[in-house]
Amino acid sequence: MLLIEDLQKSYGQHEVLKGVALKVEKGEILGFVGGNGAGKTTTLNCITGLVEQDYGKVMINTVPKSQSLAYKKQFYFIPDTIHVFPNIAAYDWIHFVLGLYEKTDDAKLQSFIHIFGMEKSINKPMGTFSYGMLHKMALITAFTISPPILIMDEPLNGLDPLAVVAFKNCLKEYVENGGTVLFSTHLLDVAEKICRSICFLKDGKIILHEYLENLLVDGSLETIFMEKQANEG
């Protein structure tokens, strides 16, 4: 379970997060939705430790963010922009990351390399990869590690149709095995098909957090999102 309490973050005089509070239960796929500048990426960066919040608490499975190493082993994060060492082969890099999580299942890794169609590219330097190939590499790493929580910022960016289908299937299996997912997206139709629950963020505040089965009684996710954006001050 991911628990966030009263998360606040400012850059100079600009207040980005204004008391974000959120609970993501085990086995949940939560879509984090908001317009540009709403604070989605800042929230994810605070959760993952890339940015320190000014105020508030973050815990994963009762492990507080202050317990840095134990906390970071509770999740794997895929950012929107993936920075790599360009001369290192993807396979070597993945093995290095797996070692940090004390994971050594090479058969599982090979399975995900095949699922995402990366057999011919996995031993090439990451500097030769396209944006979409970097995201495939990150997804292969994430699903091989299979941590308690996957946190992703726009995970479908750059993926071809076959990779999108593979992602959805792997995500379903991961959750069925007890995993939890928090991901930000601009694609409301994707969120509607994949997520169990949805969270709307506007101007650094959560304006809606609800299970989709309750929410979609009143219309499509796109319609509800536009109404909430227009009505919330």
TrEMBL record:
GO molecular function ontology, one term from the record: ATP binding
The ABC transporter domain, residue ranges: 2-228
Superkingdom of the organism of origin: Bacteria
The entry's keywords: ATP-binding, Nucleotide-binding, Transport
Protein name, per record: ATP-binding cassette domain-containing protein
